[in-house]
Design brief:
Length: 274
C-alpha cells in the first residue's frame, strides 16, 4: 500500500471516528441527558446561580428536536418537580417548579400558593440556619418557608420578601382559606392589569387560576425575585424540556458564559439531587 493510500485510509478512519463521536453526543443530548447552567437567583435556596444541572429525558419520553414534539409518550410533569422549559417570547430556557397541572385550580395570595383544587397548601416558617455563608448572604432580605403542595409528595423551601404579611401559623392561615371558601376571590383572566397577576398589586387579594389542558403553571422558589407563570402565563407541554435531576458541577464564577472557573469550585454542591 502506497503512502498516499495509507493517508487516505487514515483520513477516512478519522472522519468515521468524528462522525461516530458526534452521533453519540447528539443521541445523549437529545434523548438521554442535557446540561444547563442556572443563570439567575429565581430558584434560591434550592438552586444557586452557576449551578450546572442536567435534565433527564430518557425517563420522561422522547422529544424530537426538529418537530419539537413529544413522541411516542407525552410526559406528565408532576406538581412539586423542577423542570426546564423554553420561553417562546423571550427565546431562552428557564427553570421553575411545577405548581399546577392541567385542570388544576390554583389559589394565590401574595407570593404564596394557598390551595390547589380547594385543598390547603401547608406553609410553615423555616427558622433553621442557612447551610452556608453564600445562602446567608443571599437570604438577608428574605423569609424562609417550608412548603408542601397537596398534589406533591415532597417538602421544598421557598423564600419570600422580608415584609411578607402572610400568616406565620396554621390558625391564621385558615382565615385566609375561609375567605377563599366564602368566594372572596378574583379570577385571573378577569384582571385588567397589563402585568396580568402581580403579587404586589394584589397582595391583599386571593387570586384563582385555572390551568388549561396540556399546560402547566410554574413558579420560582425565590418568590419575590422570580418572573414566572404569575406574570407571563402557562407553559404548554411542547415547551417543556425535561425534569432537572442533579447538580453535577457548581462554581462561584464562570469563564465566559458557560465554563466553570475551577478556582471557585463549590465542592459541597457536587452531585446534589434536585
Amino acid at each position: 500500500m502506497s503512502r498516499k493510500e495509507r493517508t487516505k485510509k487514515q483520513f477516512k478512519e478519522l472522519i468515521k471516528q468524528i462522525l461516530s463521536t458526534l452521533a453519540l453526543f447528539l443521541v445523549i443530548r437529545w434523548f438521554l441527558f442535557e446540561p444547563f447552567v442556572i443563570p439567575s437567583g429565581s430558584m434560591y435556596p434550592g438552586l444557586w446561580v452557576h449551578d450546572f444541572i442536567y435534565v433527564s429525558k430518557w425517563d420522561t419520553g422522547i422529544k424530537w428536536p426538529v418537530a419539537n414534539k413529544w413522541w411516542p409518550i407525552v410526559p406528565k410533569p408532576q406538581a412539586g418537580s423542577v423542570w426546564v422549559f423554553w420561553h417562546k417570547d423571550k427565546s431562552i430556557y428557564m427553570i421553575k417548579r411545577v405548581i399546577g397541572e392541567p385542570g388544576d385550580e390554583i389559589s394565590l395570595y401574595g407570593n404564596h400558593v394557598v390551595a390547589i383544587n380547594g385543598e390547603p397548601v401547608v406553609a410553615q416558617r423555616d427558622f433553621s440556619q442557612a447551610e452556608s455563608d453564600h445562602l446567608r448572604g443571599k437570604q438577608q432580605d428574605s423569609l424562609a418557608w417550608a412548603e408542601v403542595l397537596p398534589n406533591a409528595k415532597a417538602t421544598y423551601s421557598v423564600w419570600t420578601d422580608s415584609g411578607d404579611e402572610f400568616p406565620k401559623n396554621t390558625n391564621e392561615q385558615s382565615k385566609v382559606r375561609t375567605r377563599l371558601e366564602a368566594g372572596e376571590v378574583l379570577i385571573w383572566n378577569e384582571l385588567s392589569s397589563p402585568q396580568r397577576y402581580s403579587p404586589w398589586l394584589y397582595k391583599d387579594k386571593i387570586i384563582k387560576v385555572v390551568v388549561p389542558e396540556k399546560s402547566y403553571f410554574l413558579m420560582g422558589d425565590h418568590r419575590h425575585k422570580s418572573l414566572d407563570s404569575r406574570f407571563w402565563g402557562f407553559v404548554h407541554i411542547d415547551e417543556m424540556k425535561g425534569p432537572a435531576r442533579r447538580i453535577w458541577l457548581s462554581c462561584d464564577e464562570l469563564i465566559g458564559k458557560t465554563l466553570c472557573d475551577f478556582r471557585t469550585l463549590r465542592p459541597s454542591r457536587l452531585m446534589k439531587g434536585i
